[in-house]
Amino acid sequence: MAKYETIEAAVRTEFGKGSARRARVAGQVPAVVYGADVESNLHITVDHRTFAALVRNHGVNAVLQLDIEGEKHLTMIKHIDQNVLTFNIDHIDLLAIKRGEKVEVDVPVIVEGEPAPGTMVVQDADTIKVEADVLSIPEEFKVTVEGLEFGAQITAGDIKLDEDTTLVEDPETLIANVVYPEVEETEEEGTEAEAEAEATESE
């Protein structure tokens, strides 16, 4: 069973842009908790540093237990709004979940290794959608292109999953593709253009 952190949260009593701005200035992040087990949306605030550290350590699909003034809620991150300039977290959507429940999530895919000399890797998909137990959500999947030749491809169906994780993504979804660098073709075209120009001048 995966471990999860407990974060203290406070109920929001004020709403609107002004109150949200004041919360952020005070080092808090506005958040909302929703789900089948929540009668009405819970509007809360959590400590910005604590939550940012949780995301760094456990990823954007992290599961966490909220302690809302003594009341415990098991949740998972559904969406994070970040400031486009500062990248600070502006708002969080949290989904109330239950132990043993399965959820669909987009999990990051990390491409490692170096392909054959003279080739390069193009990553076509950064995530794949899977279904997993809420307490066993993978933080990331790693695939290697070490030594792969031109034309080699890795698809979603090639990624090894745990027994309790099911692929929802189309198995044919292209993850990584080994190609020749386009710059070589550009250089050749440039050389041909220079040769034609020189021939024209000599005429």
From TrEMBL:
GO terms for molecular function: 5S rRNA binding; structural constituent of ribosome. InterPro entries: Rbsml_bL25/Gln-tRNA_synth_N, Ribosomal_bL25/Gln-tRNA_synth, Ribosomal_bL25_b-dom, Ribosomal_bL25_C, Ribosomal_bL25_long, Ribosomal_L25_dom, Ribosomal_uL5_bac-type. One of its GO terms (biological process) is translation. GO terms for cellular component: cytosolic large ribosomal subunit. Keywords: Ribonucleoprotein, Ribosomal protein, RNA-binding, rRNA-binding. Residues 102-181 form the Large ribosomal subunit protein bL25 beta domain. Residues 7-94 form the Large ribosomal subunit protein bL25 L25 domain. The keyword Translocase does not apply. HAMAP family: Ribosomal_bL25_CTC. Belongs to the bacterial ribosomal protein bL25 family. CTC subfamily. PANTHER family: RIBOSOMAL PROTEIN L25/GLN-TRNA SYNTHETASE, ANTI-CODON-BINDING DOMAIN-CONTAINING PROTEIN, RIBOSOMAL PROTEIN L25_GLN-TRNA SYNTHETASE, ANTI-CODON-BINDING DOMAIN-CONTAINING PROTEIN. This is one of the proteins that binds to the 5S RNA in the ribosome where it forms part of the central protuberance. Part of the 50S ribosomal subunit; part of the 5S rRNA/L5/L18/L25 subcomplex. Contacts the 5S rRNA. Binds to the 5S rRNA independently of L5 and L18. This is Large ribosomal subunit protein bL25. It comes from Corynebacterium callunae DSM 20147. The gene is rplY.
